[in-house]
Amino acid sequence: MTLTPKKAQDSLIQMTELVLPNDTNTFGNLMGGRLMYWMDIAAALSCMKHCAAPVVTASVDNISFETPIKLGNVVHIEAKVTRAFNTSMEVHMKVWGEDPVMQYRYKSNEAFMTFVALDPNGNSRPVPPITPSSDDEIKLFEGALRRRQLRLILGGKMKPADANELRALFFEQS
Ligand SMILES: CC(C)(COP(=O)(O)OP(=O)(O)OC[C@H]1O[C@@H](n2cnc3c(N)ncnc32)[C@H](O)[C@@H]1OP(=O)(O)O)[C@@H](O)C(=O)NCCC(=O)NCCS
To answer: Going by CA atoms, what residue is nearest to atom 1 of ligand 1?
Structure first.
């Protein structure tokens, strides 16, 4: 069965949260775990919007917290599906903090997660392909194959020898 492709832009989710005392560590900064929880939800919503099915988190790529987000500041998360494979989707997230009084935004971090769509029996099911449009979407779409190979190797699901696109980055093809 061939599924109708959908635009990457149509999977966009924008989430806004306020950092409250219970979200912070003893330095008054947003805890990493709380941010990852919100990112997980935004990413899952984006994938569900794309595939119209329940999804589970299959993997989370490494996350570097570049700038702390302060108590009383606002968290903005944008999540968009970069590429759909067979039953899995890679989703890209951008996170900003915002000081609502001084009215400026600052970048916090970016991350990739992978979700798998499930059928009513809990088995993985095919998802529609993604059509990228903007330059950014095309760049993310093209890089998704390599990132997928890297995470499948790290997860013990792919042999390095089978990761052709990833190998092409490091070795000249004969
Ligand atoms: C994710 C899960 C559905 C994969 O099931 P599986 O039977 O191991 O996977 P399969 O080999 O059938 O592969 C299914 C898809 O998952 C992808 N996948 C599996 N492991 C992955 C990983 N570590 N990273 C990225 N993708 C992964 C496969 O590439 C495949 O994608 P494709 O169909 O687009 O090629 C299963 O491991 C699961 O249910 N895990 C728990 C999910 C969960 O509870 N998440 C919440 C956090 S605890």
So the answer is: 58
